[in-house]
Every structure is written in C-alpha cells, then in structure tokens.
C-alpha cells in the first residue's frame, strides 16, 4: 500500500510590508494540518512563500529608494523569519522571482496559448494597484474599488484569457464538488459572482516592467495573478521538463503537451487563503488549470480576518500586532494555541491581550499544565520516580471511562478527527482536547490518590498510572498545535520519539510500568501581567 501524499499551501504573501498576526494565523492553520497529516502517516508537502512582482511592489521599492529585487529580497526574508519564529514546518519556501517559478509560470502561459485560450487585444478599464485587480464600472463604490482601494483608468495593449468561456464549467465543478470552496458562505459568494457573468481577463501589462516577461513578446509582462497562482505548480517542479522537450523527442506537434511526470504532489489537497483573495483562487485559478488541461486543487479554504480590540488593524491607528511581540511576551506555544483557539477558522475574530492572558492561563497553565505537574510530582514522590504499576488492581468503570476517552481502539475510529482537521475545525478539536484534560483533572479530585496512599497504595499506583497514560495521549493529540510543549510533556513521560504518532494512541503503545522518569518541571507557567 503506497503512502498517502498530502499537499497543503498558504497563500504566497505580498512583499509590501512586514508580517502581522493575520499572516501568522493563516500559515499556522496550514502548519497544524501539515503536522497532523505527518503524525497520521502521510507524506506531506507544506508550501509557503512570497509574491514579489507587480506594479505595487515596483512603486514600494521606488519609494524605499531601492531596486525591486533588493526590496523584495529584504521583505521576503521577513516572511522566512516568520516561519522560524512561529516554528512552522514548511517543506518549501517559494519566491516568484526564482528561476524555477519564472520557468513554470511561462510554461503555464505557453499551455494556455497552445490550447487557444489567449488572444491579443486592447484593455480599457479600471485597475487597482493596491489590489492588483481589474474592476468593472458596476463594481466601483463611490469611485473606488469594493475594497476601498483607489483605482486608475488604464488603456493599453493586452493579452486576454478567455475567462467568459469557463463560466458553465466552473459552475458545474462547484456543483459536483460541494467541498471545493469552504466555508459555505464563501462558496455561495463565489457561485453568485460567477453566475453574474464572467468577462475575459486581461493577463498582461505594458506600462511597467517588474514582472515575468510574456513568452515570445517581452514588451508585455504577465498579469501578477497569473504569475502568482502558478507558484503552487512551480514548487512541485512544473515546467522543469519543458526546456527542449520537443527537440529531444523529435516531435514538433504544436498541440502536444509537455510531460508532467515530475509532478509529485499536485493537485494540492488544500489551498488555505485569506477571504480577500478568494476570487483569484476559486474563479481564475481553476479556469486557468482547466484551460491548461491540468488537475484542479481539491479544496480552497478562505480564512477570516483579525481585528484588534474591535478595530481593523492599520498602521495609521498603530494597532498592527506583530507575531514577534506576542511570542516574546507570552511564549511561542501560547501564541500558537490562542490564535487557533479563540474563534472558528473561517470567521472573523478579535484580538485582545486580556483575552489571550485569560485563555492561556486557564487552559494551558491551570488545566493542562496543572494536570501534568500534579500527576508527575505525585509519581516522583510516591512511586520512586518511575511509571507506576497496576498489576493485580481490578479495572473499575471510571478507569475504563478514562481509557476510552483518550486511547484509540478498534471501536474508536480516528476518521471523524481526520475530517475535522480537513474541515479546518481547529477550535472544535482544541475544545475536545481541553475537555479531556478537564475530565482527567476531575478524575484526580474524585479518586484522591493522596488518600489512597494511606489505605490502598496499589490502587494509588494504578490511579497514577491511568493519569500518566491519559497525559501521554493528550500530549500526542496536542503536538500539531503546540509541538514544543507537547514534546516536553512526552519527554517527561520518557516516551520514545519513535512512538509519538497518532497511531501510537492505541493501547499496545501505552506506558510501560517501571520506566524511570525525569524530574518533573512546569511546562506552562502562568502569565502574570505587570502593573505599569
């Protein structure tokens, strides 16, 4: 049986500013899912990167007094640094200025052109530099783009993609694949937009130069979104075999498509994006792929936006939250945990430091951390610092309930959990894990092992064993969200690094009595706000 492959992507981030919690949030969702799939046995490709072409970048570079390449080198590095800061496990980082991407994007153009879906004409209409998007007169709101961005009238020679021809095929795809766009509100939004009618799309520009040249006509550069969307193929090797393939095979048939045998992961299982770029991913991208005779991604999930203390983040308000400031103040795993715990992924949510302190203190420090500290300290004090035994102690109903709660058995299929991850129900998953931890804390209080020590030390040892085993399972489940802290808990239980996958939640991998444990240490210190 071949190993399952799983390809997940973040949007590639536009290099006109520094990363904020919105960028961290979207990439974190991908990281959690990538980590889960690896722990579940899949071969994963997790891609992120930066979108570095276009008129907006050219203008930003000019304002900064730098060349576009120097400017993008600097800003792209900040997004690489974000990956390291947030402990993202991405397998690749793509830049649209890389040769591999330029080759891939131009190959996609050639395929569209060979298949008869590109033609040369003149474009006259409204264009937003900030959005890198074209808008019709009807879409303008008080002379501005629907996003509030300024627009300018553009008239120039342009290549067009015959997007209008793909309206019915797109609607048919949405109908046959109801999970293609999520959440449902975004799916309905896209369907409404497509049913409203599609016009052919201008896909080249001539009034600036910072972009990928159109193959065969370098007076034109490729529209930044055709360029950018191709990154998901570039990172999987698309276009690498194009080169001189006709010459090498001796076949000059203009309709013959170059080989794609080097694609190892495409189609993507999941594109995670921000809702502001949904149209490009759910309308333009599948149309490009259909026209190029390439498989479509399996799912597109549009995440929501963060506000700060009820207000939209903006430089002018001075309320942009940098991920580095949260990690420095509250800790890495506390930041990761809170960002996915606070509200359902796909909805908009609000950030406040007060709420972050309350959630991480109550759920990580007081709940999970307290459970680990209490249990392991009692084992250290009363069981010689070794995993206690339970031989000869009958398994009671409450002990069975504990085991059934945390262990995976033949009757407790993980399929439901897998579906929740693929549906990006991170908040719901964390709610269930914290509920397990709360149950284990109540088990300690009910069974009072410190009392059993005096009257029935064998039962005390069994109670502590079941608690330790429950903690092992909780830590395995928490790894995708808080990998460092979950790893520390598993270290405290002397769990081998080779036995930390989701398949190891089964009873046969349970803790072995008699194994020596290290001295317990606090994993989640409480955050105490300092008074000014």
Describe the structure.
The chain is of the alpha/beta class and 532 residues long. The protein is built from 19 helices and 17 strands. It has helices spanning 21-39, 55-63, 68-85, 99-114, 167-176, 184-195, 224-229, 231-234, 245-249, 278-291, 323-330, 332-341, 353-382, 397-406, 415-422, 426-447, 449-455, 457-478, 483-492, and strands at residues 5-9, 13-14, 43-51, 92-95, 118-128, 133-135, 152-161, 181-182, 201-202, 204-205, 213-214, 217-222, 270-274, 300-303, 306-308, 311-312, 349-351. Strands 1, 2, 3, 4, 8, 13 and 14 form a seven-stranded parallel β-sheet that branches. The protein has a four-stranded antiparallel β-sheet with strand order 6-5-7-9, covered by helices on one side. A three-stranded antiparallel β-sheet has the order 10-12-11. α1 (21-39) links the parallel β2 (13-14) and β3. α5 packs antiparallel against α6 (184-195), α16 runs antiparallel to α18 and α17 packs antiparallel against α18 (457-478). The radius of gyration is 27 Å and the shape is elongated.
Task: Describe the sheet with the most strands.
Answer: 7 strands, parallel
Note the gap between the termini. Answer: 61 Å
Helix content: 40-55%
Query: What's the number of helices?
Result: 19
Cα-based radius of gyration, to the nearest Å: 27 Å
Shape: elongated
Q: Pick out the low-confidence regions.
A: 243-259
Nearest-integer average pLDDT? 91
Strand element count: 17
Question: How does the helix and strand content classify structurally?
Answer: alpha/beta
């Amino acid at each position: 049986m071949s190993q399952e492959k799983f390809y997940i992507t973040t949007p590639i981030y536009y290099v006109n500013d520094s990363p904020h919690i919105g960028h961290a949030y979207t990439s974190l969702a991908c990281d959690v899912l990538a980590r889960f799939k690896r722990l579940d046995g899949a071969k994963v490709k997790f891609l992120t990167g930066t979108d570095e072409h276009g008129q907006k970048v050219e203008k930003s570079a000019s304002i900064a007094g730098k060349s576009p390449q120097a400017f993008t080198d600097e800003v792209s590095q900040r997004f690489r640094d974000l990956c390291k800061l947030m402990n993202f496990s991405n397998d690749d980082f793509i830049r649209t200025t890389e040769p591999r991407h330029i080759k891939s994007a131009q190959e996609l153009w050639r395929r569209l052109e060979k298949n008869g879906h590109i033609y040369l004409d003149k474009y006259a209409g409204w264009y937003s530099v900030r959005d890198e998007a074209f808008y019709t007169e009807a879409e303008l709101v008080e002379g501005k783009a629907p996003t509030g961005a300024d627009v300018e009238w553009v008239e120039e020679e342009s290549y067009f993609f015959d997007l209008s021809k793909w309206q019915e095929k797109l609607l048919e795809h949405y109908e046959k694949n109801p999970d293609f766009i999520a959440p449902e509100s975004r799916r309905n939004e896209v369907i409404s937009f497509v049913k409203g009618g599609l016009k052919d799309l201008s896909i080249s520009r001539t009034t600036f130069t910072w972009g990928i040249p159109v193959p065969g006509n370098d007076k034109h550069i490729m529209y930044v979104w055709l360029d950018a969307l191709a990154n998901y193929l570039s990172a999987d090797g698309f276009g690498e075999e194009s080169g001189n393939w006709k010459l090498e095979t001796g076949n000059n048939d203009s309709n013959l498509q170059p080989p794609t045998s080097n694609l190892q992961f495409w189609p993507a299982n999941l594109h995670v994006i921000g809702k502001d770029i949904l149209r490009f991913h759910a309308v333009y991208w599948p149309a490009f792929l259909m026209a190029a005779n390439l498989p479509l991604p399996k799912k597109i999930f549009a995440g929501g936006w963060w506000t700060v203390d009820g207000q939209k983040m903006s430089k002018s308000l001075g309320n942009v939250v940098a991920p580095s400031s949260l990690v420095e103040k509250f800790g890495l795993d506390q930041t990761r945990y809170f960002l996915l715990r606070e509200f359902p992924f796909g909805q908009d949510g609000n950030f406040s430091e007060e709420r972050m302190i309350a959630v991480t203190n109550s759920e990580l420090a007081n709940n999970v951390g307290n459970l680990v500290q209490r249990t392991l300290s009692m084992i250290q004090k009363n069981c010689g610092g070794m995993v206690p035994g339970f031989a000869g102690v009958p398994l009671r109903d409450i002990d069975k309930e504990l085991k059934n709660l945390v262990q995976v058995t033949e009757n407790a299929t993980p399929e439901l959990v897998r579906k929740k991850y693929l549906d990006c129900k991170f908040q719901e998953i964390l709610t269930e894990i914290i509920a397990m931890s709360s149950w284990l804390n109540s088990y300690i209080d009910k069974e009072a092992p410190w009392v059993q020590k005096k009257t029935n030390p064998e039962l005390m040892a069994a109670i502590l064993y079941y608690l330790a085993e429950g903690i092992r399972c909780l830590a395995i489940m928490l790894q995708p969200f808080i990998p460092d802290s979950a790893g520390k808990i598993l270290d405290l239980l002397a769990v081998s690094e080779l036995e930390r996958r989701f398949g190891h939640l089964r009873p046969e991998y349970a803790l072995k009595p008699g194994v020596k444990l290290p001295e317990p240490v606090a994993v989640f210190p409480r955050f105490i706000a300092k008074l000014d």
